[in-house]
Specification:
mainly alpha; 2 domains; about 0% strand
């Protein structure tokens, strides 16, 4: 391992935090499958993951966040920032999305589909999903602003971020369509097609 790879590798503390976060989420999803979302309490999730309730809240502010918060945004933004400077923002995000989703194994893709199905069927999750969409737009805007040297609150920057999220939503909704009739890989191809359409200027 060279010096650059060593510098990029997460430290022990970060790796332990990532493992704890993953364990909490894994046990939560298992309990939701076994006894239902509504019947599962935060204390039960914490006990299953062998952490305290206060530790749970350090990683996930609410029970809804266990379902809604995944690592896709983090992976996509990191990949977006690494794309060649000559790519347009939309082309860079399209490449980043392919990289982020392409890095997921079968289990992770299945988990992505499972959380989408929960979001579709649980009213509390559907309501909280709007907050997650806003958070995603803010994260994309921050990355696009950094890439372009503009302010994250710039109208054009926010509009671009909203467009990226919007075309992805349009391509993957209604969620009942792809969760019951389409596989996760097919979902990924639809996301890529949506971003390609945006990159082309949304021609009709």
């Amino acid at each position: 391992m060279n010096e650059a790879q060593t510098a990029q590798r997460p430290g022990l503390r970060e790796r332990k935090k990532a493992r704890t976060r993953a364990a909490i989420r894994e046990h939560a999803l298992r309990l939701f499958r076994e006894q239902g979302y509504e019947a599962t309490t935060i204390d039960q999730i914490a006990d299953a993951a062998e952490v305290s309730a206060s530790t749970f809240f350090r990683y996930f502010p609410t029970k809804e966040d266990v379902v809604l918060q995944d690592e896709i945004d983090v992976l996509a933004v990191a990949s977006f920032e690494a794309q060649p400077a000559e790519l347009s923002p939309v082309a860079a995000f399209r490449a980043a999305a392919r990289s982020a989703f392409g890095s997921l194994n079968e289990d992770e893709l299945a988990k992505l589909q499972e959380t989408a199905e929960l979001t579709l069927t649980i009213p509390e999750l559907r309501a909280r999903a709007m907050d997650e969409l806003a958070r995603t737009i803010t994260a994309i805007a921050a990355a696009a602003a950094k890439r372009s040297g503009r302010d994250p609150g710039d109208f054009a920057v926010r509009n671009l971020a909203g467009a990226v999220v919007g075309v992805i939503m349009a391509a993957t909704m209604p969620w009942s369509d792809w969760t019951t009739e389409h596989s996760a890989p097919d979902l990924l191809s639809r996301i890529d097609a949506a971003l390609a359409h945006l990159e082309a200027g949304l021609p009709l």
